[in-house]
Amino acid sequence: GLQEGAAEHGCLVCVGTVPEESSPALPCCNGSLQAAFVLDPSVASGRIAALSAVPTIYLMAPPMCNGSECDVVGTDNAAIGRMAAEHLLASGHKRLAVINPFCCWDEAAWRVASFVAAGRRGGALVHVFDNTTHDAEWADPAVHYLLRRPVACRALAQLYAQCNPRPTGIFVVGDLETAIVQRSLLAAGVSVGEDVQIVSCNNDQAALGGLDPKPLTFDLSAYEVGRQAVELAVARCSGHLRFPAVQITVPPKAIPPQS
Q1: I need a labelling partner for 63 at 20 to 30 A (CA). Which of 31, 110, 183, 209 fits?
Q2: Torsion angles phi and psi, residue 82, rounded to 5
Q3: pTM confidence score
Q4: What one-character DSSP code corresponds to residue 252?
C-alpha cells in the first residue's frame, strides 16, 4: 500500500531502520526525505527526533512515548471486536467468550473491550479469558509474550473447557492464537463447529490452514492503511492539512471460512 500510493505521487519508499539518537538524518534517502512512516510504536522518542523535520506517521498503532503527538493510520480494532460479537449474536449465541493471552498488546485490548461491550449490549453473557482474570506462571510479564503464546493459549483453552455451562461463541484475538486454541479444545473433548463457534482475526490463512472447520476471520486492511498513510503524508507535505495530529482508522473486512 505504501509503495503503490507513493508511486502514484511520483515518490519512492525507502525501507530501513530509524537511526540512533546521535545520527542527524537517514543516509539511505540522500537528503531527499519528504515523509516518514514508522511501523514500531515502541521506537524511542529520541530516535524519532531525527525525523522531526518531515511529517512522521505511525502505522497500525500510536507511539508508546508519553506526550507524543503524531499522526496515526491503523486498523479499526474496536470495529473488529464489535463485528465479531455481532456475528456471533446473529448466529444465535447468548453465551460468549473472548480469549486474549496478551494483555500488554494494545490492539488486542481494544478488540476485547469492544467485543465485551457489543456482546453485553446484545444481551449476551460474556466471559473474558486473559491473564488479568486468571493468574498463572504463563502470565509472567518478564517473559516475552511470543514465548508465552503457546502455553497461554493452551491454558486459557483449558479454563474455557472447564466452564459449566460453556459459552457457545468464542472470539480469539488472532489467527495464530486461534490455531492453538482450537487444537487444545479438540484435545479437551470440545467439538468446534458443534459445541462452539470460533471467530478469529488477522486473515492469516497459513495459520488457519490446518484447521477444520476454519473460522471466520477479519482482515486488517493493511494495504489500505498504507495507501491512506501516503495520502495523509502528501497532505501534510503540501500544507493543505493544518490540523493537529490526527488518527485515521480503516475498517476491517470479514473473511468467510476458506476451503
Answers
A1: 31
A2: -65, -45
A3: 0.86
A4: P
